[in-house]
Amino acid sequence: MTQYLLSVYQPDGPVPAPEILEGIIEDIDALNQELKAAGAWVFAGGLYPPEQATVLRPKSGEVLVTDGPFAQAENHLGGFTIIEAPDLDTALGWGRKLAAATTLPIEVRPFQQGPED
Question: Would you say the pTM of this structure is higher than 0.85?
């Protein structure tokens, strides 16, 4: 089994209205339960807005600490799910379900296998 990162990208700006967000949260919770029942769920989490990020950058033997997102962009990483799947097609199937639940774009990317694999 390979682990895959399903990254949720959301646009910058205000969060959806509570009546819309409530349905999205319910759909995500249902999908997480489905992933767990299938034995595919490893971990999932939402992130605070990028303005709450702290960036560490190595420079001249030091590590500089700055506030704010690493990159200025129209979209940011809003959350993620890590799953185990036997192949990319299965991971893409879970990614499709996550896209439908969140109403947002999902990037599906496999983790690199270690040298012992």
Answer: yes
